[in-house]
Amino acid sequence: MAARFPEFRLGSVLATSFTGTLSERHGEPVERIPTPERLVDWLAVYGLDVRSCTPAQLERARELREAIHAAATAAAVGDPLPAPAVQIINDHSARGRAAAVLTTEGERRWQLSVNSPVEDALGVIAADAIDVISGERDGKLALCASPTCRAAFFDTSRSRTRRWCEMNTCGNREKKARFRGRAAAR
Ligand SMILES: [Zn+2]
């Protein structure tokens, strides 16, 4: 009965896709990982296969998510990074024991430990956030232009002029609003 839950918004950048599991933060927020099972489903989409997740682990995942959101938002607008958020990200990154492994098809897989797969998966996400926020990866953090969203996203376009976290949602809504505005003016 997955249809009961809000669909995932899947981006190509792990860390900012993770922060996108809570959307419309400045409007009517939509929680896209409302249950531990939905976190398991979300992780599976990104190749982080865990068999189960406890409510406490979901809480820690959300704490990491909000820390990444706070740090990425600060980085996007050029503010100093909030120290508590940085601490949470670093703790998760240090705790994770995931190993990147190469398949004979030349693909990367994440190998998580038997005893703490959820912590390992969160460690991978935290490390990805560190890459993106520190500027180690080619791209630029920016905030979505939608006033009800303001999600931090990672702009990898050549011109670095992307305005929305997602064209299909925020971008289209903005375009429709502009169209309605013009129609009303006529
Ligand atoms: Zn947006």
From TrEMBL:
Could you tell me which Pfam families the record lists for this protein?
Answer: ABATE (PF07336), zf-CGNR (PF11706)
Q: Which residues are in the Zinc finger CGNR domain?
A: 141-182
Q: Which domain of life is it from?
A: Bacteria
Protein name in UniProt: CGNR zinc finger domain-containing protein
